[in-house]
Amino acid sequence: MYTISSREDNKSNLGYYLCFLAVMAIGWIAFFIIKLRDSFNAGGGKIDKLVINYIKTIRSDKLNTIMVFISKSGDTIVAIIFTILIILYFYMRNKIREAMFYAVNILGIAIVSQSVKFLCGRERPEGDWLVDIGGYSFPSGHAIISMAGALILIYFILSFLNNRILAYIISIVIFIYASLIGLSRVYVGVHYISDVIGGWALASVWVFIALSIFRRRSMKNITKYIS
After folding, report:
1. Among 202, 102, 88, CA closest to 143
2. Residue 127's CB: how many other CB atoms inside 10 A?
3. Exposure on the CB side of residue 23, measured as CA atoms within 13 A
4. What are the extents of the domains in the chain?
5. How big is the CA angle at 210 (ends 209 and 211), to the nearest 5 degrees?
6. What is the sign, positive or negative, of the torsion defined by CA atoms of 99, 102, 105, 111?
7. Of 70, 102, 97, 63, nearest to 85 (Cα)?
8. CA 109 – CA 145 distance, rounded (Å)
9. Smallest Cα–Cα separation from 106: which of 52, 53, 153, 57?
10. Which pLDDT tens digit goes with each residue over 138-193?
11. Predicted local confidence at residue 160, as pLDDT
């Protein structure tokens, strides 16, 4: 049974999670400004080049296969299918508000990602690509959508899963995999690391704002329910 005590525990945990999102967003933005401000130079910035050169030293057939798989798991068609499955799951659990929230925000962040790409017009890195893709480089669409989806899912997992240890384990796994999707785009050669970090920063800011609004409205509904 979902008691007032459990609601208070979740309220505290979700408050900490939103603080984590705020710190992460500020951290990525600060890192981008301080360390990656030269990234839009032709051929990328200093850190972009260092990462590209490092990747060249660790590439192998086995690692290529793994990273290409991870990269493709964040492709548009996979993201669409996954989003539909998440929405259906929420509907089956009578979580209509959560389903709508997830759908609207994934669509919204995807539109933002493509808009920023068009505005920045940054060309992709030159070199040996392991996957085929067109369009502009900044920000990484794979990084921004996978991270945004992961951060939203983690919020709901922490909200609804009563087994806290299991909730934390699942959340960590989801976060790590979303991070790997972003990093894999650098490995396969189609993005600079600054594209990925920029995507993570945008995703963090977007999700923090969206979840803050969602949580405030949810708390108002809970207050009405209790009263």
Report:
1. 202
2. 10
3. 6
4. 4-226
5. 95
6. negative
7. 102
8. 7
9. 153
10. 999 999 999 999 999 999 998 888 888 999 999 999 999 999 999 999 999 999 99
11. 87
